[in-house]
Every structure is written in structure tokens, then in C-alpha cells.
Write a structure and sequence with these properties.
With 375 residues, this protein is α+β, with helices and mostly antiparallel strands. The chain has helices at residues 14-38, 46-111, 117-123, 127-198, 202-216, 218-221, 261-272, 290-300, 309-312, and strands spanning 241-246, 253-258, 317-319, 329-332, 338-344, 347-350, 359-362, 368-373. One of its GO terms (molecular function) is cysteine-type peptidase activity.
């Protein structure tokens, strides 16, 4: 009979084994922690933060212009719906009036007995009186027929108006949903930019602000000596005015003639807005976004522009960069997401971005996309 071997025992007790296992797991976790820390993304530099914030602001401006377009369409749909609703109310009032008149006629007929005309002729003692009454009854019948026709017409019109109102209401709800989507996009991009900037130290934030100010040409915007000559910026008797525009290199100035009084008036208005804050979706008078400023400037000159950058670029005649004249609208980025008002000397007045007020800046600070001459 074979002898049974006794299993080999560990030199460590069960408690010691558990302790060793625990230490091994802790060591592995610690190694993983340090390894993860070793591969963590390095703290972004000020330049990297600035590049990302600039990109977020650009994306927010694209969404802002889409928001502006959706708001314009929503406002139009709401106005159309309100017009249809008001017309339906007027039609309903006319319908009720026609119905009341028809009811009064029916009641009068009932009170008169509504006898057959031949029977009335037999019963009457005065044939002439009967014939007179018959003529009046015929006229009343004509009025009754006209009243019935009017009621039918109003009913048909009201049914049509209600159908059109339902379509406009559907369109309005769609535009309002788009408005909410674009608003959420803008708010999200701006919040992300704020969070990035909040991570900078005071020294890094100062460097960022200095770089942003240099990019936006904020020094030019603070120069109160730039002006439009002529009464209220409307130009001279010859329909032209002289605009002094800062150059981007050191504030050198040269006289530039606006092509007409309207362009001078638009520039004069824009100049009066210098220093006012950028607020997305704003059209004045206390704050503006980029297309809101150009729209308001040309409105002050008596010209109605559409609301968004991508519609304003088609509001006039396209001109090349070499043909620019004061008053032209200048557009930037491939998506036509930013616009400024050219004032000559390679400069524009524009509402740059959140935190950067309306200011004068060189047009070469952003990728040039095109220009339009109004009028």
C-alpha cells in the first residue's frame, strides 16, 4: 500500500500570506499612480491657452451669428403668426356680425308668419298693399342671400387663416428650438474659455491680456483724437468728408476721404460707440456684437442691413482688399463669422469678442475673407 505524502506547507502562516498580498497590491497601486502622474499632460503654456481661447471665441462667434440668424427668422415667424392671428380675429368679428344680421332676418320672418306669397294675396284686402309688401320681401330675400354668402366667405377665410397660422406656429417653434441650440453652443464655448483663463496665474493672465491687447489693437481704440470732420460726421457740401484713421504701426495718421456722406455718417456713429462692451446677440445702444455694430452704424446713415455677417456680405457690391474705402464692410474667417467697418489706413472699427470693447484695430489681425461696399 502506497504511503500518502503530506502536502508541503508554506513557510509563512496564513496571516503572513494575506499581509504580503496586501502589500503587493498596495505597491502595484502606488506604482500605477506614479506612472500615471508621470504621463499626465503638462500644464499648458500661456501661448497654448491663448490659442485655445482664441479658437473658442471664434467658434462662439460662429454660433453667435447662427443665433442671430435664427433669432431673425424666429422674429419674422412670430410677426407673421401674430398678423395671421389678428386677421383671424377681425374675420371672426365680421362673421359674428353677419351671423347676427342673418339671425335678425330669420326672426323677423318668423314673426311675420312666413306665409306663402299666394296665400297672402288671397287673404289681403288690398292687392296694392300686398304687391308693395312682396317687393319689400324680395329685397329682404336678396339681403338675406347676401348675408348668407358673407357668412360662408368669412368661414372659408377663417379656415384658411387657421391653417396658415398652424404652419407659422410650427415654423416658429422650429426656429425657437434652433435659437435655444445656438444659445447653448455660445454659452458653452464662452464658459469653456472662461474656465481656461481662470487656470492661469496672475502673471500668466497679465501676459495673456497683453498679447490679446496687441492682437486687438486696443491702443488705437482708446485714441480719442480720431474723428470725422464735418457737422455730425455727415460730410461736406460736396458729399464727402475727411476721416483720420490710425495706422497699425505706431499710431501714424493719414487723411482718407469717405466716398459719400452716408459712409461718413456710418463711421461717425461707429466711432461714437468706441469703448462699449461686446455682448453676443446685442445690437445696441449700450452693447454690440460684431454684426450688430455694423448694422446699427449703417442704420444711423439711413441704410437697412440684414442682421448676420453671412447676409451682410451680400448686402452690397463686393470689392477687393486693394479697393477698400471708408465705410466698406470687411469680413473675416472662412465662415464669414466676423465683420468690421473699414475706416481707411488699413484699419476698422469692430466689436472684437467678450472682454474686448468696441475699438479700432488693423484689418490684418484676422484672416481676411472679403469686403462689401454699401450703397
Amino acid at each position: 500500500m502506497a504511503a500518502h505524502r503530506k502536502s508541503k506547507q508554506s513557510p509563512l502562516g496564513a496571516s503572513a500570506v494575506r499581509t504580503a498580498a496586501t502589500l503587493a497590491l498596495a505597491s502595484a497601486a502606488t506604482a500605477t499612480l506614479f506612472e500615471g502622474s508621470g504621463h499626465a499632460d503638462p500644464r499648458p503654456t500661456t501661448a497654448q491657452v491663448k490659442a485655445k481661447v482664441d479658437r473658442l471665441y471664434e467658434e462662439a462667434e460662429v454660433a453667435t451669428e447662427r443665433y442671430n440668424g435664427a433669432k431673425e427668422k424666429a422674429d419674422e415667424a412670430r410677426a407673421a403668426f401674430d398678423r395671421l392671428r389678428d386677421e383671424a380675429a377681425r374675420r371672426t368679428e365680421r362673421l359674428n356680425t353677419a351671423r347676427d344680421a342673418l339671425g335678425a332676418m330669420a326672426a323677423a320672418q318668423y314673426r311675420s308668419g312666413g306665409l306663402d306669397p299666394a296665400v297672402q294675396l288671397v287673404l289681403t284686402s288690398d292687392p296694392d298693399q300686398y304687391l308693395e309688401r312682396a317687393a319689400l320681401a324680395e329685397k329682404a330675400g336678396d339681403r338675406q342671400a347676401a348675408a348668407i354668402t358673407a357668412v360662408r366667405h368669412e368661414l372659408a377665410a377663417i379656415r384658411q387663416l387657421r391653417g396658415e397660422s398652424a404652419d407659422k406656429l410650427t415654423a416658429l417653434r422650429g426656429q425657437e428650438a434652433e435659437l435655444r441650440r445656438q444659445k447653448a453652443t455660445v454659452v458653452g464655448k464662452l464658459a469653456e474659455a472662461r474656465n481656461l483663463l481662470a487656470r492661469l496665474t496672475a502673471e500668466e493672465r497679465a501676459r495673456y491680456e497683453a498679447a490679446a491687447a496687441a492682437r486687438d489693437g486696443s491702443g488705437a481704440g482708446a485714441d480719442a483724437s480720431t474723428r470725422t470732420d464735418g457737422p455730425s460726421g455727415t460730410g461736406t457740401a460736396g458729399g464727402s468728408s475727411t476721416v483720420r484713421a490710425d495706422r497699425s504701426s505706431g499710431g501714424e495718421r493719414e487723411p482718407v476721404s469717405a466716398p459719400d456722406g452716408r459712409a461718413a455718417a456710418a463711421i461717425s456713429f461707429a466711432r461714437a460707440q468706441l469703448g462699449k462692451p461686446y455682448v453676443w446677440g446685442a445690437t445696441g445702444p449700450s452693447a454690440y456684437d460684431c454684426s450688430g455694430l455694423t448694422q446699427a452704424a449703417w442704420r444711423a446713415a439711413g441704410v437697412s442691413l440684414p442682421r448676420t455677417t453671412y447676409t451682410q456680405i451680400n448686402a452690397g457690391r463686393r470689392v477687393s482688399r486693394s479697393q477698400l474705402a471708408p465705410g466698406d464692410l470687411v469680413f473675416f474667417y472662412s465662415g464669414i463669422s466676423h465683420v468690421g467697418l473699414y475706416i481707411g489706413g488699413g484699419q476698422m472699427i469692430h466689436a472684437p469678442r467678450p472682454g474686448a470693447p468696441v475699438r479700432i484695430a488693423p484689418i490684418d489681425e484676422m484672416p481676411f475673407a472679403g469686403a462689401t461696399r454699401i450703397g
